[in-house]
């Protein structure tokens, strides 16, 4: 691979990068407060005019406009039972019982268990075991597939496997028994337990059993598993190509031949009990809107759920996710004092990390800083976490947008990297990068480096190495799919790091740099 690294490069926010955007939000989102203003309820006598937020937008995020994109309304219902006792007390008792009966029928229809006598004798047996987990699709891969869809004017279908884990087969030499569910003891089998013949929800190996079952079926109908992405399958017949992605029980199918797509859907329906959801609209909590050669990915509904869950619906929005220059320090509280605070800090940070992973790279650095204090937090950390929610309140309509109008078949890829230097208590630097396809962010990362660097140039060079590793994965995956790439322009704002990348000769000041980094940057 050859990487073109420009000599004259400015910061990535101003050199051929996305420009500032003005977001005009509906009046029900409140006004934009000063970054130092404490969160609070929006009073009824506030100005009801439209709010305007101006901010630096280096990630390719765009606001959803009311006329072109669908607006999703989410009602939060906290009525999820944890036991049969909860079902009995629920106002929606009958609906939950009906759902339970449907699930029980699926177990019977699938031949999930046999009934065996339960013996009192204890059979002592020791064996080594490892927890088996399911492989799932990377979100980067999902975004890349959507990029291919709009750039090639393909159709994309979505299917859902009903009770997917019940289709997984157990090993012949494995015997697993379970008690019959309460209220569902089969007459005449009292005092007996069930021997599982297939996997079941709650079994540690169930996800992997399902994945192996699906993999064997897909290989049997002509699909090949990609080397660089084990949950992406490809089937080629002449010039025809079908791509299939798997995320547990969510399956998407696309390609350049609609007849072959329909054939693949029919084969899946014949072998598994499937729900055909038609054109892809929502997957993994992401709202997907495909219109012609434009696709948007947003999580406005998920943000609204978070605001409601953490009692921030009426908070005042702010224009940035964190205060510039503010450094969160570890709490001095001991574990028992942290527990006594009874703050859902970890839960909130995990929810925010999910947003970063899916569609909101603009809060990546703020969430990274919050994640450093999951075991040593206090009110100051909780306040900063709520500030991110306040930022999301004012920007909840932001989305990732891929626009291939006028560029069908084009693969304009650019990448940006940056790093600070020793700006933490342990003197480690932070690497950040963006990978942009036609101006849309497909990959973003903000991560502390694993080593202590000795200069700004070395820190920037390590960040460049992290970016190149990500680009190599994209290049090799696209080549595997039949879309070989040319040179990719990498934007770096440090001339010394660029010089080291172009001329990695042995030098007194750089000889200590890891050979792994040199190998990546010299590809």
List keywords for this structure.
523 residues; alpha+beta; Nucleotidyltransferase, domain 5; Alpha-Beta Plaits; 6-stranded antiparallel sheet; 5-stranded mixed sheet; 13 helices; 21% strand; globular; disordered N terminus; RVT_2
In short:
It contains 13 helices and 21 strands. It is of the alpha+beta class and 523 residues long. Among the domains are: 3-13 and 411-521, Ribonuclease H-like superfamily/Ribonuclease H (Nucleotidyltransferase, domain 5, 2-Layer Sandwich), CATH 3.30.420.10; 130-171 and 199-293, 2-Layer Sandwich (Alpha-Beta Plaits), CATH 3.30.70; 299-403, no CATH class.
CATH top-level class of the domain at 130-171 and 199-293: Alpha Beta
Q: Number of DSSP helices?
A: 13
Low-confidence stretches: 1-56, 65-77, 111-132
Sheet bearing the most strands, described?
Answer: 6 strands, antiparallel
Q: End-to-end span in angstroms?
A: 5 Å
Strand content: 15-25%
Tertiary shape: globular
The radius of gyration is: 26 Å
Per the CATH scheme, the topology name of the domain at 130-171 and 199-293 is Alpha-Beta Plaits
Q: Please count the beta strands (DSSP E, at least 2 residues each).
A: 21
What would you say the CATH architecture of the domain at 130-171 and 199-293 is? 2-Layer Sandwich
Report the helical percentage.
Answer: 25-40%
Class inferred from helices and paired strands: alpha+beta
What's the overall average pLDDT, rounded?
A: 78
In the sheet with the most strands, the strands line up as: 9-10-11-12-6-13
């Amino acid at each position: 691979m050859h990487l073109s690294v420009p000599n004259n490069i400015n910061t990535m926010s101003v050199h051929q990068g996305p420009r500032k955007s003005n977001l005009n939000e509906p009046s029900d989102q409140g006004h934009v407060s000063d970054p130092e203003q404490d969160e609070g309820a929006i009073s009824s006598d506030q100005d009801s005019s439209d709010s305007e937020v101006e901010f630096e937008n280096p990630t390719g995020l765009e606001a959803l406009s009311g006329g072109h994109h669908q607006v999703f309304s989410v009602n939060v219902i906290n009525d999820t039972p944890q036991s049969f006792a909860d079902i009995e007390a629920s106002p929606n008792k009958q609906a939950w019982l009906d759902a339970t009966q449907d699930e029980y029928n699926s177990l019977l229809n699938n031949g999930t268990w046999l009934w065996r006598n339960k013996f009192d004798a204890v059979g002592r047996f020791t064996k080594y075991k490892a927890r088996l987990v399911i492989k799932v699709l990377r979100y980067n891969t999902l975004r890349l597939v959507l990029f291919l869809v709009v750039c090639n004017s393909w159709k994309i279908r979505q299917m859902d496997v009903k009770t997917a884990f019940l289709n997984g087969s157990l090993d012949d030499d494995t015997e697993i028994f379970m008690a019959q569910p309460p209220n569902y003891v089969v007459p005449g089998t009292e005092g007996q337990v069930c021997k599982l013949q297939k996997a079941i929800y709650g079994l540690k190996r169930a996800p992997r059993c399902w994945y192996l079952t699906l993999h064997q079926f897909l290989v049997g109908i002509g699909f090949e598993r990609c080397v660089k992405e084990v949950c992406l399958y490809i089937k080629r017949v002449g010039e025809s190509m079908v791509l299939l992605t798997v995320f547990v029980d969510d399956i998407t199918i696309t390609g350049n031949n609609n007849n072959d797509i329909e054939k693949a859907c029919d084969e899946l329906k014949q072998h598994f009990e499937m729900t055909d959801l038609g054109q892809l609209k929502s997957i993994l909590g992401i709202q997907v809107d495909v219109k012609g050669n434009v696709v948007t990915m947003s999580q406005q509904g998920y943000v609204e759920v978070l605001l409601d869950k953490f009692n921030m619906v009426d908070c005042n929005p702010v224009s940035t996710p964190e205060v510039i220059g503010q450094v969160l320090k570890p709490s001095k509280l001991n574990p028992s004092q942290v527990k006594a605070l009874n703050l859902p800090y970890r839960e909130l940070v995990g929810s925010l990390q999910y947003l970063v992973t899916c569609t909101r790279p603009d809060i990546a650095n703020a969430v990274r800083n919050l994640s450093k204090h999951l075991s040593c937090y206090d009110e100051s950390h909780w306040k900063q976490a709520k500030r991110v929610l306040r930022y999301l309140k004012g920007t909840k309509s932001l989305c990732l947008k891929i626009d291939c109008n006028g560029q069908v078949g084009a693969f304009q890829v650019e990448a940006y990297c940056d790093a600070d230097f020793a700006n933490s208590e342990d003197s480690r630097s932070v690497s950040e990068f963006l990978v942009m396809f036609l101006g849309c962010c497909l990959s973003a990362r903000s991560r502390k480096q694993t080593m202590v660097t000795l200069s700004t140039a070395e820190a920037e060079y390590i960040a460049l190495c992290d970016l190149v590793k990500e680009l190599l994965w994209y290049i090799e995956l696209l080549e595997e799919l039949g879309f070989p790439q040319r040179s990719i322009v990498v934007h770096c704002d440090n001339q010394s790091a660029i010089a080291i990348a172009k001329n990695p000769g042995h030098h007194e000041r750089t000889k200590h740099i890891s050979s792994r980094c040199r190998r990546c940057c010299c590809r």
